[in-house]
Design a protein that fits this description.
By secondary structure, the protein is mainly beta. 9% of the residues lie in helices and 33% in strands. The chain has helices at 2-9, 78-83, 153-157, and strands at 13-17, 19-20, 30-32, 54-61, 68-75, 93-98, 116-118, 122-125, 136-138, 161-167, 187-195, 199-209. The strands form two sheets. The chain has a six-stranded antiparallel β-sheet. The chain has a six-stranded antiparallel β-sheet with strand order 2-7-3-4-5-6.
Amino acid sequence: MENKTNILIKRLDCILYYADLDSTNEHGAGWIGGNAPVFFDNHSDLIHDHNQKYVFYLSLNHPFKPGSMISIFIPEDRDEHLENNIYPNCLVKVIEHPISAESTNNIFANSSLIKHIIADGQLISDEKSIDRPFLIKVGGNPRLIQNEDYYLAKLKEESFSFFFQVDEDGYPDTLIQEDGSYPFYFGSLYIFAKVGTEIEHPIAGFWQFS
């Protein structure tokens, strides 16, 4: 509880995660690329919206809820993805669900990404994280590419707080296929949630690129 307060309320600390192609930890804290969790084999209705198709991005074990994980899916249509990048119109899907192994079904696989394990997170002070690269940063203060109020306006109005971000500057060189593309145009995705006694309703707040 003290860690959660320092990470998400006082924002003195944060948790940094990195991606590893050759991890000896088969499961780690989740994975990026590869197939979606087996949970979605029978829940594709949670992903595709009408004509909008999605591809899998990553799954992360929930840092504060044992037994839960958070999976992220991005639109297959890159133009729609690019034009709808700020809440409440951000099309990126963030779904909390029970921890689940990777599926053998590649229906949601992103052809641009080579699967990497997300290594277990490291707790450090937010101040010390300022100059460090990372794949994922949970809590502390977001590292913004564009510090403009309009990205946060609707989120603040609806009492959403920064939860974590995924930063493409922290990708290992082995993550993107030779002919692949960066899902967020070499940018960063920011996930928000309702933060109180529990962490509820994780959503894609916005994503940015330079």
